[in-house]
Amino acid sequence: MSSRRVAVLVAGVLLAWCCGAGAQESGKPLKRFHEVHRAMGSEFAIDLYASEDETAEQWMQASFDEIDRLEDLLSNYRPTSELSRVSREAGKGPVTTDPETFAFLKKAVELSRRSDGAFDMTVGPLMRAWGFFFNKGRVPSSEELAALRPKTGWQHIKLDAEKRTVYFDNGVSMELDPGGIGKGYAVDRVVSLLREQGVKAALVSGGSSSIYGIGTPPGEAGWRVNVPSAVNAGKTMSWVMLKDMSLSTSACTEKFFIKNGHRYCHILNPHTERPVEDKLQTTVIAPSTTDSDALSTATFVLEPDAAAKLVESFPGAAAVLVSGDKTHPKTRNVRWPEPVK
Amino acid sequence: MMNRRFFVQGLSAAALAAKPVISLAEAIAGKQDPVRVGIIGPGSRGKELVRCFLRVPGVKFVAAADVYEPRFTELNQVCGYKVETHNDYRSLIDRKDLDAIVVASPLSYHSDHVIAALKSGRHVYGEKTMAFTVDETKEIVKVAESSKQFYQVGHQYRYAPWIRAGVEKVRNGEIGEVTHVFGYWHRNSDWRRPVPKPSLERLINWRLYNEYSLGLLAELGSHHIDVANWIFGEAPRSAMATGSVAEYHDGRENDDNVQAILSYSKGRRFVFSSMTNNAKMGDQLWVYGTKGSLNLTLEDALFYYEPKRAVEVPAAKGTVTQKGVTTGASYSAGGEMPYRGPGKKLEIPVAEDPTATACRAFIDCIRTGKKPVADARVGLGSALGVIVANQSLHEKREIEISSAV
After folding, report:
1. Which residues, in sequence order, are bridge partners of residue A210?
2. Domain, as residue range, for A199
3. Is domain B4-158+353-385 in CATH 3.40.50.720, yes or no?
4. Cα nearest neighbour of A86 on chain B
5. What does the pLDDT read at residue B319?
6. Predicted ipTM?
7. Domain residue spans in chain B?
8. Is the pTM of this model over 0.80?
9. Chain A residues whose beta carbon lies within 8 Å of the beta carbon of residue B352
10. CB of A85 within 8 Å of any CB in chain B?
11. A180 exposure class (CB count in 10 Å sphere: 0-12, 13-18, 19+)
12. In terms of CA atoms, which chain B residue is nearest residue A3?
């Protein structure tokens, strides 16, 4: 469903410039616009600078149309999506798919390989078994989880670039879950679209967990993003200025369920088939939002040493990782550019 | 005047309604003869068609024609390889290495491009609405039916299994006698595309100008008119439409909201509403029969049933007269309140996106020789409704379609 498609001129914090970095080639002063749009089970928000209301609205609309298109392509909640078709049919034999979906899957498999399976799109059946699919949390039996083992595992996704086909070599339908990468990919696509339109300064946010800053707001060093404390609600533990850079966060502060006094996190460890324990929050910056999205999930699953090593293997990436529990949190900085409280 | 003969293909398609689309995919899987395709007009819709066609094994886009250069780069990104380019569609048609041509150009160019492509001996997938004028629609039908090649029009609702199954049940009497079909396509966007410089306004935003487009009736309503034709089993007989610019006073020529009523035989009606500043209703159809209603969307089909009417009670079961009734204090709201409960979802095997299915089916026709479901006659029925309704909108009067034809 479309959100109200009227770009809101941001009042109060409006900054207008008549020359220099604040003006477009037309010479007209730039104004900041903000608009939100519901998609992919969350809220996408865009802040951008434009000199005309109409131009801003058209850029917003084109961006949200692109997000809707990607939801149609990649949603695992929609049986008509291309990703759902691949999930259903690739266990029966090679499925030809379009170049974009193929490239998306290739990227996902690459990230699974580099993270040793900590990021794994095939966790769909596990998400369903633990009741995270429709927010009805439950604890599945060991037998149930064991029965799902043959239906998961990124290694079973076989890609043939020449034929552009996808095949699951375990011979079963696997439910590919774009949850740990889809919003980041959508943000990257919107960033690319806005750049093609000539946008020089914008902040694109996918549900606040995957964010990209294009350029800088006029007169600023970057788009400031605050990293919340993983322990004290309402407090900030660090911040970062995004300039042509993405940031993604994984945490269990919003999606979880409590059963018999135990808190179960919605991020699953593909190796144990169980919710991750003893992790509080991971925030990753990287040049690509697709990468930072998957890395925030992978580093949430991995032990801190392995997580740090993974982040360091991505040029330009950095992270702040919080493990332990709320009474004994352990924070680890990996090339993080700003102080951490 | 149209007659039922024109719609035999569409009706026979309904007979396939319950067939899961996956069987179609599997049937095709074994036959992957290369199909070389050219596209005229790889704009936003054209690129979406390319994505869908590239999900079919063996399909390769060889060439593209467009008058707007940036489209070629965008197309290469979609394809993942370089597609040969033509600035004039005629040079694309002159190529010797094409099996099929996709026409996704602005509506006013459809007939030129479709007819030239068909006459060149290529199969053609042409976007809806089929053509811009009545004469052009008739010419396409004439050329398509005298051609050995297939022409499929982009009425993809005909390929959505849940819509096919829903229509089949309706035609079998599931909701009684159908007298009305209501189609809504409400959006909340100005329908504009970003324009790099003012001189490109009409080229990029062609949908807003009546030199190129028949507006909301064509770009959105043609699908709904097609479904109404399918359900009623005939083309509309007259059209009455109105519209205005209510929100976007930006120099556009085509209205930003349109209402239309198309009349069919036996007093049956199709009612269409499209607006572009409120998306509450979205894109949906309601099929109203004497015993129930069918709600069709691009994701599902839901049935709702009317309250049962009085039935005769056998004498032996006359409990009211023999045992009496028990008094109570309940109060029931009037029966005029709209029903707000759930409908009965039509359960069918899962399927892919209808446009992707339509593209897959077109390639299947090329490989197997089967005739397209959405053929020139299907396109004609919808196009007549669109064109005459648009004429009605401008002339502010009801117009007989037979007289227009």
Report:
1. A206, A248
2. 8-74+188-206
3. yes
4. B352
5. 64
6. 0.77
7. 4-158+353-385, 160-324+334-350+395-404
8. yes
9. 80, 82, 84-85
10. yes
11. buried
12. B188
